[in-house]
Amino acid sequence: MVLKSTFTFVAVAALALFTAAPQQADAHSWADCIDWQFKKGGLNVPGKQGQDWTDGAGKCNGYARRYPLGKAFGSLDSADPNRHYQQVHKNPNSALPCSDKRAGKEPGSDETRANPVSKAYGGKWGKMTVTNVGNTLCVRWPAKNHAVKDEENHKVQINLSKVRNGKDISQQELLKNTIAQLPFKNCKPGKNEDRRACGGCFKVPVRASGVYLLQWRWMLNKDEWYTSCADIQIGK
Fold it and tell me: Region Disordered: start and end of each range (predicted)?
């Protein structure tokens, strides 16, 4: 009886310890901010490592389409609808570049182009990015448990349409206008792998003054892409 009771106690204790331990489930990322501005003295430089992307080290001056304000960083994977849009596995380069809330492996939130574009910004949504040719833009995203040692090859494409003040172009056309390749793992160190703050910076290329589609596109695995879309107003 003593042996049986001891075994039962150990088994129950082990189960309790397992269930009490924090569980890390893989989730999928999105662009949290399209125009992240570091505080004075921050490393707002393309290609530099070690930037501090955490709240308090800077602020966001431009967001993706219909991005809800007032939410905790990295929390929108549990929202309804969630923030991440996964293009179809079979041929992601022919998928919609921006979520319509219906298509895709994971539909995500509505990021279709508004008419006028200003309707997707302001009020309960974040404001639109306003910048100039030659400026540095920094985009921020949550790690969602994927900025770890055994996941080295993840990359973020930044695609910027050349169509001014017009409809969204196709994913295939966007791929002809990739202006930056950013390492996904450029993150602020931290214990919470799910909500580590990550990001990357790039220069705004030459465009005529107007509003353009910018796409953040993250490759997790082969043919597995997640996107966030934003309108950015570019001046001279």
Answer: 78-118
Which among 211, 33, 214 is positioned nearest to 117, based on CA atoms?
211
- Whether the pLDDT of residue 138 is over 80: the answer is yes
What pLDDT digit, counting tens, does each position of 56-94 carry? 899 999 999 999 999 999 999 888 889 999 999 889 999
Q: What pLDDT score does 15 carry?
A: 41
Q: What is the pTM of this model?
A: 0.85
Alpha-carbon gap, residue 118 to 106, rounded angstroms: 26
User: Do residues 231 and 65 lie in contact, with contact meaning Cβ atoms separated by under 8 Å?
Assistant: yes
How many Cα atoms sit within 13 Å of 160 on the Cβ side? 20
User: Which residues neighbour 116 within 8 Å (Cβ) at sequence distance 6 or greater?
Assistant: none
What is the Cα–Cα distance from 183 to 147, expressed in whole angstroms?
10
Which CATH superfamily groups domain 30-235? Immunoglobulins (2.60.40.10)
pLDDT tens, residue by residue, 164-207: 999 999 999 999 999 999 999 999 888 888 999 999 999 999 99
Helix, strand, coil in percent for the chain, rounding step 5: 15, 30, 55
Question: What's the token pair of residue 169?
Answer: 């172009």
Q: How many residues are there in the chain?
A: 236
Q: What is the structure's pLDDT at 97? A: 97
| Alpha carbons 191 and 139: distance in angstroms, whole number | 22
What tokens appear for 37 in the block?
A: 């501005």
Question: Could you tell me the CA-to-CA distances from 75 to 26, 50, 72, 160 in Å, in that order?
Answer: 13, 23, 6, 27
